[in-house]
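Thread: "does anyone have the structure for this chain?"

Original post by V.I.:
We have the sequence but no experimental structure in hand. Need at least a predicted one for the grant figures.
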Amino acid sequence: MAITEQELGLFKAIGNNDKGAIEAVYKENYSLIQHFVINNNGTEDDARDIFQEAMMVLYEKSRLPEFELTCQIRTYLYSVCRRLWLKKLQHSRRIESQVENFDRIVQVEDDIEEHDKLTRQYQTMRTAMGKIGEPCKSLIEAFYVHRKNMLEIAGFFGYTNADNAKNQKYKCLVRLKKLFFAQYKNA
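Reply from O.Q.:
Generated one for you, tokens below.
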């Protein structure tokens, strides 16, 4: 994706220590970095540390008159974070193999694209869950989020047995699936 005037303005604002610009970059990009670090043997604390280091790199680069941003801020931050995290993994010996070329590990744009796709799907699912109504919403959450078994669900929702609860859960999932795909096609 080409870099826009808005991106260049945001980059310049970061160099001027604009708190709003820094917060905007944080809100827009942190979840991507957190997802990457956690999925690669890290913790939330590791993700915060790596992201903070990358923000410092971005800030320092934005203050250099000779530095020219040639990609989106998101791509730049992700690339810096990925490099920092892989170096940290290598240093802490969490990975055994020698990492010689970080650029061959993951294509930045592919990873960002996949993250954006999953985020859109998650938002579509949240919307569908909001439209499904009760008791389906609570039943699905009890099973998938709270990890309740069918016997517990039957007791809580007043079904005569676990099989009836299972049958109702199936009907709710069919409704949820229809809502999800109807919205997904329109998005």
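V.I.: this helps a lot. Residues 108-132 form the longest helix (25 residues).
O.Q.: and Residues 94-101 have pLDDT under 50 and may be disordered.
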